[in-house]
Hints:
The chain is mostly helical and 272 residues long. The protein has one domain. It is 77% helix and 3% strand. It is built from 10 helices and 2 strands, in the order αααααααββααα. It has helices at residues 2-22, 25-47, 52-62, 64-72, 78-95, 103-128, 133-158, 173-193, 200-228, 243-267, and strands spanning 162-164, 168-172. Helix 4 runs parallel beside helix 6 (103-128) and helix 7 packs across helix 10 (243-267).
Amino acid sequence: MHRQRLLTAAALGPLLFIVLWWGGRKPFDLVLLGATAFCLYEYFTICFPGRGVIQGFGVMLGLFPLFSVLLWGNPEFIVPAVYMALLGSALLFLVSYSRWSNASWNWATFFMGIAYVGVCAAHLGLLRYLPMGKEWVLFLLVTVFCGDAGAYYVGKGIGRHKLCPNVSKGKTVEGAAGGLVLNAIAAFFLWFVLLKEIDLRVLVPLALVIGAVGQVGDLVESMVKRSAGVKDSGSILPGHGGILDRVDAVLLASPFLYWILSLCRIEGILIR
């Protein structure tokens, strides 16, 4: 398992970097669209097993926010896209009401997938469209993935105190702290090689907050899986599970980073 985890990361990491750094917006958009569709499919497969129609509608409606960003590149269009997804999901569960023991609960679970996966992925697209967009996407990915690795290895090595045992038995306080340390180290490294024009006194705290938000995202996905009684969201990535297992932290952290950077641009901070 450990060897598979390293081999998968070694294969996909450079490929993702090439797409982000040299591929331009269209290849990035296609990769983001495909990854989001997979994540949506995994989420709805977890929450609605054996219900292919519901899964299909979930993927379709969940892509509305991302489509709005890819078509118009403006965060204002996410709101009507989410509303259309809400309306579509409401109609779906009204039509199929008699097939559910608790339709409102299932509708809430359905729409959470649209909000958690679809809306958050749309912000990753918005982040790419900012000035220095590819640098900030790289900052997000490297910071979160390094924090994830730090939490995994520190927790595995010296973890003793459970972080949130009712949700995830494997995550520890020591692992979370180790993840934050790696977040800070990653931020310093990226500042040194790529982001010298950004104040390090701002970049490191930003990385720490992003890392903390990412850990919440990791726990959220663990909660979803535990509620459904499954271990992994999928099996497409050897050693990691599904795509949602790999990007759960990135998803929740991307809107936070996007809106912080947008606010900083308005206030005249962090501008190149």
